[in-house]
């Protein structure tokens, strides 16, 4: 199993952000993680990636327990956070070199050329990050998340704020990566889930409200948007 989440609880002070969250994601799945604002999506993603600690419950990534193998697990996960923090004054290659060195990647120049090509950054590769459009900044974020060739990609709202063309391009990229990787993707956009995900997990007020294959929803003529509204009303 690529991601195994068991009975995760997390509170901020008195506020319960996650209540008894459990699910598994198998290798090769692209899972859409849907929920209203404040439902707990970012909190769970940060916990999976090791940036936050759960209060109780356990997580394993590629069958490795998070608490016992945190360094190894970080090398298996690529994370694009909602804010996509980038060093805006760096050139694209400079930034990817900086990230690649943190992961101690061998043949880094070759890997950077490969990831620049994969993420469609070639035409802009001579630029500084602050000279890029939002869509290209997202590509740099994805390139950085993928540079160490992780098995699992955790993407927190990777398409928010993109124009329709950029949206399609980034979705195509995620679909392409999803052929080889396991992807957990949070989004507010139902179409996106219908288009690129094989499964949807809906979270509401810190609890799992549903976990379904997109093909099952379609088979039963259930519109994802209506379903989501009913579950989160
Ligand atoms: P989502 O990503 O689904 O919008 P979050 O995980 O960001 O949800 O937030 C879940 C709940 O936890 C919200 O009520 C939010 O206000 C609260 N929360 C998130 N981060 C913090 C924090 N650092 N300190 C206190 N409360 C937080």
Describe the structure.
With 233 residues, the protein is an alpha/beta fold. The protein has nine helices and ten strands. Helix 5 (134-146) runs parallel beside helix 6 (164-178). The protein has a six-stranded mixed beta sheet with strand order 6-7-8-3-9-10, with helices on both faces. The mean pLDDT is 93. The two termini are 32 Å apart. The longest helix has 15 residues, at 164-178. The chain is 38% helix and 27% strand. The structure holds adenosine-5'-diphosphate (ADP). Adenosine-5'-diphosphate is lined by residues 12, 15, 17, 35, 37-43.
Structural class computed from helices and strand pairing: alpha/beta
* Share of helical residues: 25-40%
User: What would you call the shape?
Assistant: globular
Q: What separation lies between the terminal Cα atoms?
A: 32 Å
How much of the residues is beta strand, in percent? 25-35%
Cofactors, ions and other ligands in the entry:
adenosine-5'-diphosphate
How can the largest sheet be summarized? Answer: 6 strands, mixed
User: Which sequence of strands runs across the widest sheet?
Assistant: 6-7-8-3-9-10
What's the helix-strand series?
Answer: EEEHEEHEHHHEHEHEEHH
Radius of gyration: 18 Å
Q: What average pLDDT do the residues reach? A: 93
Number of helical segments? 9
Secondary structure tally: strands: 10
Low-confidence stretches: none
């Amino acid at each position: 199993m690529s991601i195994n989440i068991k009975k995760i609880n997390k509170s901020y002070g008195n506020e319960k952000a996650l209540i008894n969250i459990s699910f598994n994601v198998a290798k090769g799945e692209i899972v859409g993680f849907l929920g209203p604002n404040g439902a707990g999506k970012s909190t769970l993603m940060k916990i999976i990636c090791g940036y936050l600690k759960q209060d109780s419950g356990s997580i394993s990534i590629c069958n490795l327990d998070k608490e016992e193998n945190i360094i190894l697990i970080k090398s298996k996960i690529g994370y694009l956070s909602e804010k996509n923090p980038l060093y805006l004054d760096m050139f694209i290659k400079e930034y990817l070199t900086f990230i690649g060195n943190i992961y101690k990647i061998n043949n880094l120049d070759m890997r950077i050329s490969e990831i620049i090509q994969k993420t469609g950054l070639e035409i802009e590769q001579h630029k500084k990050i602050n000279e890029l459009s939002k869509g290209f900044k997202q590509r740099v974020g994805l390139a950085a998340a993928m540079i160490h060739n992780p098995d699992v990609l955790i993407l927190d709202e990777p398409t928010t704020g993109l124009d329709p063309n950029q949206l399609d391009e980034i979705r195509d990229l995620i679909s392409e990566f999803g052929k080889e990787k396991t992807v957990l993707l949070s989004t507010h956009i139902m179409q996106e889930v219908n288009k690129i995900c094989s499964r949807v997990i809906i979270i509401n007020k810190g609890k799992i409200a549903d976990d379904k294959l997109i093909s099952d929803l379609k088979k039963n003529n259930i519109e994802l948007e209506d379903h989501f509204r009913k579950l989160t009303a």
